[in-house]
Amino acid sequence: MKLFLASQDLGNFATILQEMVGKKKRALVISNARDYYNDETRIARSVEKTLVNLGEIGIEAERLDLRPFFGKQAELARYIEEKQAGLIFSVGGNVICLATALHESGMDEVIRQGVAEDRFVYGGYSAGSLVASHNLSLYLIDAKSGEELPPCFNPDVTKEIYGVESYRQGLGLIPEYVVPHMDRSDCIDAMRKGLNKIAQASAEAICLDDADVFVVNDENKEILKG
Hints:
Radius of gyration: 16 Å
CATH topology: Rossmann fold
Oligomer: single chain
Number of domains: 1
Strand content: 15-25%
Number of strands: 9
CATH superfamily: Class I glutamine amidotransferase (GATase) domain
């Protein structure tokens, strides 16, 4: 199993990802963490940076929107097989949107099987890294009375966007919980709340600054500090 879990974009370790992917330099970039925008133009624009970043290290990347595959797991599995990608990469955004889209399309099972069989690397940043863990409820912020959560933190936005209840289980690829953006003043309060929940659950937190990456290469795990 090979995982490349970043805090922001590719961190300072794009060449490491390039090496992990090897000869199959094709990537599918899952955009659904950004669905909370509810604005197709904005979603596409936000994913473009990742496509460019991957292209700069010689990985031909295209966007994968899972919404057309909801309830069509077999069709999605065939599509992924045909693409022969060496990397499946999820961008940041709302982790519950991402987890719900993965589950509704069956992409969660495709990823689990694919990394177990070393058919591709799974990578992501921010929400794309968070979803590699198990219980995503540990990342959710509890709103104060009368407080409205920002859309990127709202777990119930899936009702409006997808018309389904939120799904709060991650891919279960790692027992640890990635906590990104630890060096960002605009995120640190939310990240500290997540750290408290992770500690209360007696789980291990992997704290990353935006230049850092958590890499899993078979039995080897390493935090690369940028």
